[in-house]
Amino acid sequence: MSWRPQYRSSKFRNVYGKVASREHCFDGIPITKNVHDNHFCAVNARFLAIVTESAGGGSFLVIPLEQTGRIEPNYPKVCGHQGNVLDIKWNPFIENIIASCSEDTSVRIWEIPEGGLKRNMTEAVLELYGHSRRVGLVEWHPTANNILFSAGYDYKVLIWNLDIGEPVKMIDCHTDVILCMSFNTDGSLLATTCKDKKLRVVEPRSGRVLQEASCKNHRVNRVVFLGSTKRLLTTGVSRWNTRQIALWDQHPQPVSPQGCWGLLPGSLSNLTFPEAVNPPSSPRSLQGDGNIRYYEIGSEKPYLSYLMEFRSPAPQKGLGVMPKHGLDVSACEVFRFYKLVTLKGLIEPISMIVPRRSETYQEDIYPMTPGTEPALMPDEWLSGVNRDPILVSLKEGYKKTSKIIFKAPVREKKSVVVNGIDLLENVPPRTENELLRMFFRQQDEIRRLKEELSQKDIRIRQLQLELKNLRNSPKNN
């Protein structure tokens, strides 16, 4: 059955996308060509971070938002990882703290100086080792300060208490690589998608799987909680490899699909990433290929209503999404995306604007939103306390910065024991894809060494010939 958008009345119905002019873009950035399924970009109200292509390790750029234009090739980088950087996320409560994870099995916490980097940063304020394989995802807890989640290719999710710099909990219920993690509003539940084609809702502090679902007609790749509505939105592919959206009901039945309310047109050339915002009445955006599509979630059928589509011929590597408190409310901006265009080495800011005639504050499109103050400390959350995020109004333009300062603990520990298991020694068997990847890497290395040896042989012959000619020259006779 072909996909057809359904139109209805909505205050977001006429939202449109406005691309920034070239001088307000970020140009000359060597965006990573890594095929890992992530955004490779993170943004907050002060900084833009982008994972870059590099040799001999992993690196990413951190650029102040006001420093637009062409970025010099020798611009300082964060380059302390020994492997490719796979994910980066800003701390929601301390705007100059960023977490990164890499193929070198580590998670690192970096403190960016005021005004941005002046030289390459190689020393992290905190290095976290607990995974036995590369780490593909990091997520900050939405309400508790200094609680970080990381998911690795060892099929484990570790919960880090950054006050002590150690993993305090381990979620070990997955049988394959974890593709996505998402929290509900107060952070009491964690939804995950996995390569084993299952969607799980987990209680993170106990590691207990509360609900689990597997849908034959919808292979789930990405998931996001829809605020406090007890619903989840997933994107994935159908059995015919067409991109697909599904809305899931969490309560009272086990997680079950209410139906796939739209088949996104196009082949599986790019995964679709959902970007959800609070509250539930706000629009949701879905990005894939070069376009951004808007939907609105309702409480009655058809539940998922199409609003509009922003079209662009240039495919995007990923999108950085500005938090709500960083938007320009005077221009009725409800979203701001930072689009990564790999072929051009370009980062394009795209503002989604609701057209309004009045220049006054539009309270109906800017409800209360989470600010930069944590609701809980790490020990409170770990002891079982749940609190909703501290909400703020954007009426006067929210510019308040958190007074919390990150203090890295001093520690020296070779083994990492969680739930009685040494995580660095309990290594699962390698998958077929990993073995193939290692084989091809070794073949590439052998080919490179042969080429170097061949070049050296040619150079030796040239030197021998020059020496022979020099000896037979008339001057020597």
From TrEMBL:
PROSITE patterns linked: WD_REPEATS_1, WD_REPEATS_2, WD_REPEATS_REGION
Pfam families: DUF1899 (PF08953), WD40 (PF00400), WD40_4 (PF16300)
GO molecular function, one term: actin filament binding
Source organism of this protein record: Pterocles burchelli
PANTHER family linked: CORONIN (PTHR10856), CORONIN-2B (PTHR10856:SF17)
Sequence intervals crossing the membrane: none
Protein name: Coronin
Keyword annotations from UniProtKB, A to Z: Actin-binding, Coiled coil, Repeat, WD repeat
Lineage per the UniProt record: Eukaryota, Metazoa, Chordata, Craniata, Vertebrata
InterPro entries: Coronin, DUF1899, WD40/YVTN_repeat-like_dom_sf, WD40_repeat_CS, WD40_repeat_dom_sf, WD40_rpt
SUPFAM superfamilies cross-referenced by the UniProt entry: WD40 repeat-like
Keyword Coiled coil appears in the UniProt entry: yes
Family: Belongs to the WD repeat coronin family.
Ranges: WD repeats: 78-120, 128-170, 171-212
Segments forming domain DUF1899: 5-69
